[in-house]
User: Which sequence fits this backbone?
């Protein structure tokens, strides 16, 4: 028992809740270098990428309505536009009918987020941190032998998975967190 373990006091931490971090470090979608995501907007200092630019909405060309003639008796049946739902068409002369086609709903687009910059695989689990402050919090928590945490279940420390809280993974977790710390640049850009 010759280890000199520190004490972790959650009340002394500058950020106690996940919503307290105002930015995240992510991979730039353009150059794959480190970028900053703040309020769902990504800005890269290396390639000057930003997704804050207003884009013109895509305008679909409107097709004119088409006149439908009966293929049997060549009578006027009705009109429709291909961008609107096709209603049932029926010829009053010969009884020919065209049923509406099944409407294909588009697959919802998933919101694509840039992957986190500070993310590493740890024994099949994802060990990640939002930013340098979150990484410092994780290092202090893992290194501590005695952890004084809040009894509520809404703080960062209370939401950590059991494999991070376990003391048997302490040394390996500290090495993995050191690898994440090495990914940060020497002189972090100002985040304000």
Assistant:
């Amino acid at each position: 028992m010759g280890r000199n373990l520190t004490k972790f006091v959650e009340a002394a931490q500058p950020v106690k809740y996940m919503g307290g971090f105002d930015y995240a470090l992510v991979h730039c979608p353009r150059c794959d270098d480190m970028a900053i995501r703040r309020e769902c907007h990504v800005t890269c200092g290396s390639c000057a990428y930003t997704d804050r630019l207003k884009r013109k909405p895509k305008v679909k060309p409107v097709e004119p309505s088409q006149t439908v003639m009966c293929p049997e008796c060549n009578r006027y049946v009705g009109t429709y536009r291909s961008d609107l739902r096709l209603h049932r068409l029926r010829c009053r002369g010969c009884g020919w009918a065209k049923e509406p086609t099944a409407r294909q709903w588009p697959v919802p687009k998933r919101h694509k987020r840039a992957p986190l910059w500070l993310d590493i695989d740890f024994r099949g689990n994802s060990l990640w941190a939002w930013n340098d402050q979150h990484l410092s919090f994780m290092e202090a928590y893992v290194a501590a032998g005695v952890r004084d945490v809040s009894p509520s279940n809404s703080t960062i420390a209370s939401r950590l998975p059991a494999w991070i809280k376990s003391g048997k993974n302490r040394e390996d977790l500290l090495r993995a967190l050191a690898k994440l710390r090495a990914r940060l640049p020497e002189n972090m850009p100002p985040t304000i």
In short: The chain has three helices and eleven strands. The CA atoms of residues 77 and 165 lie 72 Å apart. The first strand starts at residue 6 and ends at 9. The two ends are 44 Å apart (CA to CA).
